Amino acid sequence: MRKTPTGSRMTPRLRAALVAVAIAAISGTTVAGSPASAAPRHDTTQFKGVNWADPRDNFADDPVVLSGLSLSDNYARTYAKASRIISAFRANLGANTVRLPINPYTVNGSYWKSYRGVIDAASDQGFKVIVSYWEGTGAQKDGFIDDQATYWPMWNTVVKAYKNDSHVYFEPMNEPHGYTETEWADIAAKWLQTYPSVPRDRVFVSGAGYNDHVTSVCADPRLKGTYLSLHHYGFWKEYATYDQWVSDLKERIGDCADRTVADEFGAPMTTGLDYDKPAPSDNFVNYVQAVTDTFRELKMGSVYWPGLRTDDTYSIQTLTGPSSRPWLATTNQSGADRLAWAWGRGKPVRP
After folding, report:
1. Which of 15, 32, 87, 92 is deepest in the core (most CB within 10 A)?
2. What CA–CA distance (Å, rounded) separates 225 from 215?
3. C-alpha–C-alpha distance, residues 156 and 160, integer Å
4. How many CA atoms lie within 13 A of 85 on its CB side?
């Protein structure tokens, strides 16, 4: 600490300033009184995206192969196909984010070299890429990590490959419904502790249960600084009004909207529903209008399920063109309109 010149006297104002700085250093606050260690407010509106899925819904006991790709494709072919599909997500929907599945079969085996072509193609186009672990199918589909002995080596490989790529985000598990709230928070905290080199604002901690509420993980101080991922679906209720859907969504978010991204939500897109017009008697129209209005109101990012999944009535895109040069077409323009509205663009629902 620098001494004051010999014979000089500190003025009351200088003394007060030095005392304030000393108190701030001890208490962890700035001189103005704001917490110096407080995590910066996240901008979740930056995530405007879609899920790209395996036709089997990403639950698999072998490598996940995204719709439009092939297990026999090498890195170059995977990269080329993925580049076109990512470009189509942007051109057709205005998306800038894609959420992708991984599992140990994909990462720990020979397919990983090819599958990296998807992540690299998206990152190279400036897309944000959310990489999420999916459990297996059949008896494995129970909401638990299938095998700790393969789970952690999987993440070791993924983190090593992409920890320095600021476009890539890590989601330790999709829908951890087998665990209690406390058990799941413990696992998420262990993931953060295991990979301290990953910035917390590049980690998505799933809400408890089926990612169906974020209030418990939001309240856990060990998970401070991470994003929180929420799932929300219209099929959870046989029928609800617009207002009831708004209330249901907000209850699941609590006061955590500034950290939350809805990285799965969806509704039928190939059955002819018009989401641009009110239809109070239709549950799914009420749902889509309510959640997209709420995401926009709360300034929340959102990632639709699915952007592309073969033979899924919820898919808002469908494959066109030859398999070697795939492109996409929009299955429901009113659904695309509602995505644009949720993402801060477009027009409100017509009266």
Report:
1. 92
2. 15
3. 6
4. 33
| Any domain includes 61 | yes
293 is a domain residue: yes
Phi, psi of 205, rounded to the nearest 5 degrees? -95, 120
Domain span including residue 121? 46-342
Residue 130 CA, distance from chain mean position: 6
Domain total in the chain: 1
CA distance 80 to 85: 9
Provide the 3-class DSSP secondary structure of residue 95.
Answer: coil
Q: From CA 345, how far away is CA 333, in angstroms rounded?
A: 14
State both tokens at 130: 């959310």
Q: List the alpha helices (DSSP H) in 48-178.
A: 75-93, 104-107, 112-124, 148-162
> pLDDT tens digits, residue range 311-344?
999 999 999 999 999 999 999 999 999 999 999 9
Whole-number Å distance between alpha carbons of 306 and 292: 15
Tally of CB atoms within 10 A around 274 = 16
Residue at 14 is within a domain: no
- For the segment 119-154, what is each residue's pLDDT rounded down to a tens digit? 999 999 999 999 999 999 999 999 999 999 999 999
From the list 122, 112, 168, 107, the residue with the least C-alpha distance to 308 is 122
Instruction: Write the Ramachandran bin of 293: left for phi over 0, alpha for psi from -120 to 50, otherwise beta.
Output: alpha
DSSP 39: P
Q: At what angle do helices 75-93 and 112-124 cross, to 10 degrees?
A: 40
For the chain, which ranges sit under pLDDT 70? 1-42
In angstroms, the first-to-last Cα distance of the chain is: 68
* CATH number of the domain bearing residue 316: 3.20.20.80
C-alpha distances (whole Å) from 328 to each of 89, 117, 217, 313 are 8, 19, 36, 15
Q: Which pair of structure tokens corresponds to residue 310?
A: 């073969």
pTM, rounded to two decimals = 0.88
